[in-house]
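To start, one record:
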Amino acid sequence: MSLSIAWQDGVVEAVDQCALPHEYRLLRLSTPGEVIDAIQRLAIRGAPAIGVAGALAVAMSARAHTRDGVCDEAAVRADAQRIADARPTAVNLSWAVRRVVGKLSGGADAVLAEAYDILTEDEKRNRAAADEAADLVQRLCGRRPLRLLTHCNTGRLATVAWGTALGAIRVLAGNGHVTEVLFGETRPLLQGARLTAWELAEAGIPHRMLVDSAGPAALASGMVDCVLVGADRVCANGDVANKIGTYSLALAAHRAGVPFIVVAPESTLDLSLASGADILIEERSAAEVTAFGGVEVAPAGTEVFNPAFDVTPAELITAVVTESGLFGPLRTTLLTSTVSERAS
């Protein structure tokens, strides 16, 4: 499987997620500013992917600000702050930036080595989380063909390779345990329609797309055995920020008695935040929803509320699964109750 992000001769190579599904092309980004722009316009997106890209952008800055073997740490730290601020909700970005900035005293080579470690660790971490999640799904739902529902894009495009929630779906499909995957179109930028559909087709996994608002109806009508989603930030109490629309699916899954599983690497955990009430939710441009395909669809001057993410409370989540297994607050309480309810 090809990587969605790579370091080649001093530049970041990344799949341009704005071009898919019509064109598969690689971006070559040679400055921190170009990486920031790619992250902000969602050419690079997905919490793990932007973390890796951000780390590599800091490495670029360190190389650019090194003269005669001396690194201008103040200049690099200024660039690092701009990179970390590019998208405020996904904690993986600031986590990765902090991690590489911590190597600044060792010079540009040390920063690059740490960034490269983050890149190479990503696939291993996500494959492990996907395996853990797939095992949990089978324990909850049985080792049988399943009808799964996911939201946004959490596959290899959102990571360096393999994926988180979509990675777990790949594992289940590889074991012969997927009948069909339902997925939302993911308004306003259609990451589901453009990217998840492309990845599922690439993998040969049966799938059908829903308009976002149809997800709860699919759950209520018994079309779904399990919901699998990713995360952009997980708080200490287990509250989860993820793509807007996740909360409504969690509510519907809870009402329908369907397991709702979040799959994310440990870099997505933010134990400094007590709950989801503390998460800064990114709001995006009104133009993303007042126009569609370049055509204005709303009257001029229409006011818009366009949050990129919402927060799902821990009590609606069956489990948060990382590469190390279940995240602590949910390990015994919600999982035990879910298993008990489904056995009764």
About this structure: Residues 181 and 207 are 5 Å apart (CA to CA). The chain has twelve helices and 18 strands.
